[in-house]
Amino acid sequence: ASAAPQFRRVLLKISGEGLMGPREFGLDSATVAAIAREVRSVREMGVQVCLVIGGGNLFRGVSGAAEGMDRTSADYMGMLATVMNAMAVQSALEKAGVQTRVQSAIPMEAVCEPYIRRRAIRHMEKDRVVIFAAGTGNPFFTTDTAAALRAVEMNCGALLKATNVDGVYSADPKKDPQAEFYPRLTYTDVLARNLRVMDASAIALARENRLPIVVFDMHGENAFAKVMAGEGRYTIIAE
Ligand code: UDP
User: Which residues are annotated as a binding site for UMP?
Assistant: First the structure.
């Protein structure tokens, strides 16, 4: 990745499953360390980076509710799971020599900073990577929506959504070899065709605020830096 970056400041959304590596549950330290290196190389391009990390590798509110738990309590557990993931990624980033701050939407002063928008921006201006934990802080939301929200609040040039495939297809390319790849889509395409990229509230928020969403495959060396340089294959969702 040598070309100039496409954006000055971005938010990277990684799902909880993105931290599992080959495991069925929880965190894989080699995978977390690889993510930290990816973030570091984008930082080295001069791009300001903030992160939203999901919690699905540890707990999902809907699963808790399906087993009879009160949905709101289950969602708070899911949000707490994202705090644990944020701490793991913070630790890996600092080991890789990257300065970080975790800010939680649910204040937890012994553990991390509370979410304060202006302070988060200041951290990024000082070259720190800010990790936003606890989603939006509200039940019935997802970390995809939290990612769109924080990206808009931080005036990010784009929301980068890390996935297991190199972009958006008409069907699951792992199951359907005829699936068509889309290099570019509009927000309305995604909503109208019900393409499963991010949940509808995240797409709607991005559309309303003209926040481009870049869907890419986070696997492989320098995947994040390459997409930032406009190299390789990815899908961009915009107007
Ligand atoms: N969650 C929530 N509000 C938010 C973000 C997340 O209630 O703003 C809860 C919800 O229960 C969700 C869990 O946290 O299932 C983990 O987040 P998510 O499913 O978005 O993680 P991912 O799929 O990205 O790993």
Answer: 55, 75, 136-143
Q: What is the pTM of this model?
A: 0.97
- Is residue 85 in contact with ligand 1, taking CB distance under 6 Å? no
**Domains of the chain, first to last:** 9-238 (3.40.1160.10)
State which ligand 1 atom lies nearest to the alpha carbon of 17: 25
For residue range 85-137, what is the model confidence (pLDDT) as tens digits? 999 999 999 999 999 999 999 999 999 999 999 999 999 999 999 999 999 99
ipTM of the complex: 0.99
DSSP class of 19: G
* Protein residue with least CA distance to atom 14, ligand 1: 78
Quote the strand ranges of 79-125, DSSP E. Answer: 100-104, 113-114
For 35-75, how does the pLDDT look when each residue is reduced to its tens digit (9 = 90+)?
A: 999 999 999 999 999 999 999 999 999 999 999 999 999 99
Are 85 and 16 contacting, i.e. CB atoms less than 8 angstroms apart?
yes
Distance CA 135, CA 95 (A): 24
Q: Which residue's C-alpha comes closest to atom 19 of ligand 1? A: 56
CA distance 64 to 81: 13
Contact 143 CB / ligand 1 (< 6 Å): yes
- Report whether residue 75 contacts ligand 1, using a CB cutoff of 6 Å: yes
